[in-house]
Amino acid sequence: MYFVQQWAPSYCSTAPHECEYEPRLPPNNFTIRGLWPSYEEWRPEYCNISDRLDPGQIQDLVKPLNQSWPSLLRNETNLELWSHEWSKHGTCSNLSQHGYFAAALALDKLKLTNLTKILADGGVVPSDEKTYTLG
């Protein structure tokens, strides 16, 4: 599985007219982008399109999900984002709906150290103006 995080200013720089992240998000903070199953080079998607997200299954997770996994799009609610992520990726995870979102939150809590500090120590400063290449 890939645990994917996003930096709101950079994500929104790709579609600024569609994005809205302030003041809902804490500054200088990465948020969850997704938890994506992966098998070597292959990432399955939409494994069970009839399995729609039931908000009642994740009711106890809504508060932490709102903080850690918010939608950055102006015309998309958090629940709409989570429903999309469940349909596209969660249905391929072999986890229950609750298990999938709880796993993402558990991985998010593993940020025992400030991720921006770790990156800065490595010479990478999150920015919506500068890009970095892999390699």
Automatic annotation (TrEMBL):
<dbReference type="InterPro" id="IPR033130">
    <property type="entry name" value="RNase_T2_His_AS_2"/>
</dbReference>
<dbReference type="GO" id="GO:0033897">
    <property type="term" value="F:ribonuclease T2 activity"/>
</dbReference>
<dbReference type="InterPro" id="IPR036430">
    <property type="entry name" value="RNase_T2-like_sf"/>
</dbReference>
<comment type="similarity">
    <text>Belongs to the RNase T2 family.</text>
</comment>
<dbReference type="GO" id="GO:0006401">
    <property type="term" value="P:RNA catabolic process"/>
</dbReference>
<dbReference type="GO" id="GO:0004521">
    <property type="term" value="F:RNA endonuclease activity"/>
</dbReference>
<dbReference type="GO" id="GO:0003723">
    <property type="term" value="F:RNA binding"/>
</dbReference>
<dbReference type="Pfam" id="PF00445">
    <property type="entry name" value="Ribonuclease_T2"/>
</dbReference>
<dbReference type="GO" id="GO:0005576">
    <property type="term" value="C:extracellular region"/>
</dbReference>
<protein>
    <submittedName>
        <fullName>Os07g0629300 protein</fullName>
    </submittedName>
</protein>
<dbReference type="InterPro" id="IPR001568">
    <property type="entry name" value="RNase_T2-like"/>
</dbReference>
